[in-house]
Design brief:
By secondary structure, the protein is of the alpha/beta class. The chain folds into three domains: 2-292, no CATH class; 304-342; 356-554, Restriction Endonuclease. The protein is 54% helix and 9% strand. It has 23 helices and 14 strands. The strands form five sheets. It has a five-stranded mixed sheet, with helices on both faces. A three-stranded antiparallel sheet has the order 5-7-6. A two-stranded parallel sheet has the order 1-4. A hairpin with a 5-residue loop joins strand 9 and strand 10. The termini are far apart.
């Protein structure tokens, strides 16, 4: 049981990307089901994650803590795993691992998450919680049509009791009026408004002098409010990401807002009307665990045969529906059609990309990434790099990120695979992208990038290279990738040709592809990476090699 000391909505923030818990709880169940969840199994679990390429460097100093951070938070809080008396997946967890429509599984579990609960007990110093946070956030978004990230962060997180819904609505209305009347700088206006709200939320702590945070001995009000503001941003970000995992919302990355997908409004209205807003089984853990782990509740629109048939006919009017089909067969039919439609949308996107019809859009998106003006920059970098690689040259270019039903990017690739895989017939290429910089870039990306390339070479049994892209390349990464050109390591399948390039250099390569008088071919890609091998064999050090390969990239199509 966790003690909740928060004055605003509490939600789990780990893992940051909900989809990443799917393979991890699958591994947990496959190897540790029936065992006790203790330091020994926690360390063993982290070792398994490393072997299976899920582990990205973090948690090496305390693997048991890192394991608890991965499993005890969202997987347990959302009812996917039970850790006592022994490790096991709940029925909802089994459904998440095995179901074709994982977004629906996420939805049911999010709608049941509540505070208070036997898992999360508020303290005397916390807000007076009485809420199912995600249910009420869906209601808030539906009420306004669209909700800005700032609005959810500053006001939505104050919805600690569903009976205060109208109060929060009025707060947002007043904020929008004040924003419309503000003639000055928006950032300054937002900061001042947020500061006033923070001082109201934490007035009791401020007046009693309870302003020291865990991370520091600084008890100043300014530091206290800054920490709380940062925490609220993390909570709001988690809300956006977990709501997006349901497939029911659109994220405007430029406008930094969230809205209900128009085609999904009927589904949202159904559960808003039929799902009980009252928390349940507050003091009965056995009943709460059974309730939380039940994958059939709450009831969704797709559980009603008549309404499901109406929805199928509305979205696919030419589809014939058998009167003898079971409800599950109808759900499978609907899932098949949604998947086919998504694949068709992606096929049309790829055709437009290959014809350079989306060149300006791809270029603009890269500019927005460099300006850091988008909501989920890492996701947009991964998606836009896939589009750029598709446009750059021939080959079968596959993005391992998750797309929603309408071909929009939904979440980044899982941790055990390259971000993008390019098959050019005689050879392959993995592409890895990151917004990380400094030493953190090397710690989280250096070794996993190499493992992903080794895994690809092992699975395809053909030569392969790797392109590593980031806004800036850390010196440790330069040294690491340079050394791997020359070191024959059996674990990695021999030498590893990994070329790190700054994002602006990669953008220049894309522009050159667009401006070339001929269509670039896979051989141009292979020649570039083979040049890197030649350069690494004669360069005196990593600096000379990196400078040389960067200069080559800037004129990579020069014959």
């Amino acid at each position: 049981m966790a003690r909740i000391d928060s004055k605003v909505i509490f939600v789990t923030t780990s893992p940051r990307t909900p989809a990443k818990m799917i393979p991890e709880i699958g591994l947990l169940n496959a190897h540790f089901a029936g065992q006790s969840w203790n330091n020994e199994t926690q360390r063993a679990f982290m070792g398994l994650l490393r072997e299976e390429n899920f582990f990205n460097g973090e948690g090496a100093n305390d693997p048991a803590f890192s394991a608890r951070d991965r499993i005890n938070r969202a997987p347990k809080a959302l009812g996917f795993v039970v850790l006592s008396p022994t490790i096991q997946l709940t029925a909802a967890g089994e459904e998440l691992v095995n179901s074709r429509r994982k977004d629906e599984v996420f939805l049911r579990q999010l709608l049941k998450f509540q505070v208070p609960s036997p898992f999360h007990k508020p303290t005397e110093n916390s807000a007076e919680f009485w809420v199912k946070p995600y249910l009420e956030l869906f209601r808030l978004i539906r009420h306004f049509g669209s909700l800005k990230f700032d609005e959810l962060k500053i006001f939505g997180l104050q919805l600690v009791d569903y009976r205060k819904f109208d109060i929060i609505v009025e707060k947002i209305n007043q904020f929008r009026i004040a924003k419309a009347q503000n003639e000055g700088n928006y950032k300054r206006f937002r900061a001042e408004y947020f500061d006033r709200e923070l001082r109201e939320i934490y007035s009791a702590d401020i007046s009693s002098g309870n302003t020291r945070t865990r991370e520091t001995n600084d008890a100043s009000i300014a530091k206290f409010l800054s920490t709380k503001a940062s925490n609220m941003r993390d909570y709001a970000d988690a809300c956006f990401r977990y709501l997006r995992a349901t497939g029911l919302v659109n994220i405007s990355h430029l406008g930094k807002s969230i809205s209900i997908v128009p085609e999904k409004i009927q589904e949202v209205d159904y559960f808003l009307q039929h799902t009980d807003r009252e928390p349940c089984f507050i003091d009965n853990e056995r009943q709460y665990v059974a309730y939380l782990g039940n994958p059939k509740i709450p009831t969704l629109l797709t559980d009603n045969r008549d309404l499901l048939e109406q929805k199928i006919r509305a979205e696919f009017p030419l589809l014939e529906i058998s009167e003898t089909a079971t409800l599950q067969e109808l759900k499978d039919l609907f899932a098949d059609r949604l998947e086919n439609r998504k694949e068709q949308i992606l096929t049309e996107q790829i055709a437009a990309i290959k014809d350079y019809r989306l060149f300006e859009d791809i270029s603009t998106t890269f500019d927005q990434i460099l300006d850091n003006s988008l909501y989920d920059t890492p996701l947009m970098l991964e998606w836009n790099t896939w589009r750029a690689m598709t446009m750059l040259d021939g080959g079968d270019i596959k993005a391992n990120l998750k797309f929603d039903d309408f071909g929009n990017p939904m979440s980044t690739a899982q941790g055990n695979m390259a971000d993008i895989v390019c098959d050019y017939g005689d050879f392959g290429l993995t592409v890895e992208v990151t917004m990380q910089s400094g030493q953190r870039q090397y710690e989280t990306e250096g070794e996993p990038v190499t493992r992903h390339l080794a895994k690809y070479k092992r699975e395809t049994e053909k030569p392969a290279y790797c392109l590593f892209i980031a806004p800036n390349i850390n010196d440790a990464c330069k040294a690491h990738f340079y050394a791997l050109h020359r070191m024959n390591i059996q674990y990695y399948g021999g030498t590893s040709t990994i070329v790190p390039l700054p994002l602006n250099v990669f953008i220049k390569m894309v522009q050159d592809s667009h401006n070339a008088s001929y269509v670039p071919e896979p051989r141009h890609v292979q020649q570039f990476f083979e040049y890197s091998n030649e350069l690494a064999s004669i360069a005196d050090n990593e600096v000379d090699w990196f400078n040389g390969i960067t200069q080559k990239a800037l004129k990579w199509l020069d014959e």
